[in-house]
Amino acid sequence: MANPNREGEFLLVVLRRPLSGSCKQKIVESFPSLKVKHHIIGEGECDDSVTQAVTRAVLHRVTILMTDQYLPNPDDVARLHLVHVARSGVGDLIDHPLLHRGSVTITTSSGIHGPPIAEWVAMTWLVISRKFLQQKEDQMRHRWSQESARGCFDHVNKRVGIIGYGGVGRQVARVASALGMDVCVLTASARPNPASRQHRGYCIPGTGDPDGTIPSTWHHGAGKIALHGFLSLGLHHLVISVPLTERTHALIGEEELTLLSRHAPPGPKPYITNISRGQIIDQEAMVHALESGQISGASLDVVYPEPLPSDHKLWELPNVYISPHASSYGVEYLQRTTDVLHENIVRLSHGELLINVFDRDKGY
Description:
By secondary structure, the chain is of the alpha/beta class. It folds into two domains: 10-110 and 333-350, Rossmann fold, CATH 3.40.50.720; 113-322, NAD(P)-binding Rossmann-like Domain (Rossmann fold, 3-Layer(aba) Sandwich), CATH 3.40.50. The protein has helices spanning 21-30, 47-53, 56-59, 114-129, 132-140, 167-178, 224-231, 254-262, 283-292, 333-350, and strands at 10-15, 35-40, 64-67, 82-85, 105-107, 159-163, 182-187, 217-220, 237-240, 271-274, 297-300, 320-322.
């Protein structure tokens, strides 16, 4: 792969938000020979209009592309060898022909979302367990009453099952562990030894579970048997943190929700948190489980479809918290995705393996 210190290397940045001066400066100072062009995608702007702003003459020079939604025609970027996607995965870009050109390496921003998403997860749990909304309502009424605090509970010794143990799952585990919870995880492949449990992707320093030592039990398997065994562990919380693939589509359905509920420990029924993609849970089955009390509630940063129609039943359920696929948002986002790109450009210059490489066979 090309060396970014070599003359002629050209980075094109096409994003919906502008990079800060510090983001660009970090790359420019590290690689003074690297030419950089930055285009901000306007509201409602399509690929064709981007192409008008970023001409073919420019595209023919591009060797590295950083983008969150725009991908050029493969015929226009013959020199391109690296695409960095400023998202956790490639998402709806997966069928674009550029992603299937073998000479182009695709990297993602997986790993940067852990802190904000884990904070969102903990926030939704604590809003419920500490009856925050009820006490806020008392405040707005100028009412001093401890009645609304009755029935509050903490999370010590509660068991959380996390399906998927990438950067986000590991930070959720770190926060849950800090709350005194028992953490169990399920991954598709076996992780039988310490080396296999290490996190190989990008990790913000001081976060996550780099060595994979937080879970008390680590389960594996891509089929129903493994999943059903995991759901039978007596979970208080179930967190969905896997990418959407053909294998994970409708992973949690009526059968799985029934199993989760049946094996619940004494007390409130299990609580589901989905920070992955809405299609991973059978939404109709989940609504039924929520209405029947089979599960106690759900925190949903993702639903299907998105946006959720205004007349959808989920909006009205009192035991559901919905946010508009925004749990990863934060002012730190662009700096961190740029950090991943910077790390990989450093690795390119040293001839080292890149991190967060998109696996075309796995789809993530």
